[in-house]
Design goal:
Oligomer: single chain
Bound molecules: iron/sulfur cluster
Number of helices: 11
Shape: flat
Largest sheet: 7 strands, mixed
Mean pLDDT: 95
Distance between the termini: 45 Å
Strand content: 15-25%
């Protein structure tokens, strides 16, 4: 990895340089919260934002996306990927970049690569920025508070200057053309280490650090805890909607009223929806909210891990704030803590 230092006053020039070729999406104030939205000037961007309400997922895996359009009469199919815009996702936190990396493992699986996802990813640059943990953040407990790949640039604020990790040649060329860069000094490295320690100490101690989570998920699979969560769950699917790593989808062919033209759509789905596992014949193999909530948590904290060696949940805390029934991975960690205390 290549590191350079740039003066903070040069950031607007970097944004302008990106805007020459790319749509720039960045964190902006949105009502009482923050959101990733396209911006037209540096002044709109909020750099020290807390976690946004929804994630960057919508720019790589839109909630509803036309995959292609067809015309039955002349047997014509429009290649959708031609309309994908080159884009820079600017100001992503480490957990959100780790979330994209997790989605890559699913959609860029060499055996079944998803061409639509790949087209978005190939047209997208990611520029990360360091953050300060909010009370509901627990990325550090799931090894997602730092990111080592999956970005083109990562900016670490050192106060008046940024230590920039450079992850791609394309981004390096734009950065070098737009800004005066210098080599990192020992003083920069010392400041980086000090700020990293400070950040690690800023995480809430209220969220228990549980070891062997996948094993505990198996051990307590039949515990009454899941039924209690199921009774509280409203099946509203808000948790999946805000989650940067929920990726289940449905496919629908939509025919226009003329019966000749139409489109194939991908629509994001949610395993917490009562219809999600309903199959032809009326059988629902996850009929109760208990089964659905448990399944979601298992995928986040056990199933994905056994296949890919890391948690699907990146501890961003979005579902903690979105769920009206106080159901989240943090509740699961607290349950394991209680169980540990009972056994002690
Ligand atoms: S499960 Fe919740 S905390 Fe984990 S990545 Fe999804 S929204 Fe974030
Ligand atoms: S866990 Fe919470 S957010 Fe998710 S479906 Fe149930 S009530 Fe809704």
């Amino acid at each position: 990895m290549l590191y350079r230092v740039m003066d903070a006053s040069e950031l607007p020039r970097l944004i302008d340089a990106f805007m020459e070729k790319y749509e720039v999406v960045a964190p902006v104030k949105s009502g009482r919260s923050f959101a990733f939205e396209p911006v037209s000037s540096f002044d709109e961007i909020v750099l020290d934002y807390p976690t946004t309400l929804t994630s960057l997922k919508k720019y790589i895996l839109p909630p509803r996306e036309t995959l292609f359009e067809f015309n039955v009469e002349d047997a014509d199919v429009t290649d959708y990927t031609l309309r994908i815009r080159p884009r820079v996702l600017f100001g992503a936190h480490a957990c959100d970049i780790n979330a994209l990396n997790n989605l890559d493992l699913v959609f860029e699986d060499a055996r079944y690569p998803d061409p639509y996802y790949e087209a978005h990813r190939a047209a997208t640059m990611v520029v990360g920025i360091n953050c300060s943990p909010a009370g509901s953040c627990f990325c550090h407990l799931l090894d997602a508070d730092e990111v080592r790949s999956g970005y083109d640039l990562f900016l670490q604020d050192l106060g008046g200057r940024y230590l920039v990790s450079i992850g791609s040649v394309e981004a390096a060329n734009i950065l070098e053309a737009a800004c005066d860069l210098r080599e990192a000094t020992d003083e920069d490295r010392r400041e980086f280490r000090r700020l990293t320690r400070e950040r690690q100490e800023a995480f809430s101690n209220d969220i228990p650090d549980i070891q062997e989570i996948p094993m505990l998920m198996d051990a307590f699979h039949k515990d009454a805890f899941w039924a209690e969560l199921g009774e509280r769950c409203l099946s509203c699917t808000a948790c999946s909607a805000v989650c940067p790593t929920c990726y289940c989808f449905d496919i629908a062919d939509v025919l226009d009223p003329d019966g000749k033209t139409g489109r194939r759509e991908r629509i994001l789905d949610a395993c917490t929806s009562p219809q999600f596992a309903l199959v032809t014949g009326g059988h629902n193999f996850r009929e109760t909210a208990r089964d659905r909530v448990r399944h979601r948590m298992y995928h986040k904290l056990n199933g994905f891990n056994s296949k890919h060696g890391r948690y699907l949940c990146v501890g961003c805390g979005r579902c903690v704030r979105a769920c009206k029934a106080d159901i989240s991975p943090i509740e699961v960690l607290r349950f394991f803590e209680r169980k540990g205390a009972e056994d002690a």
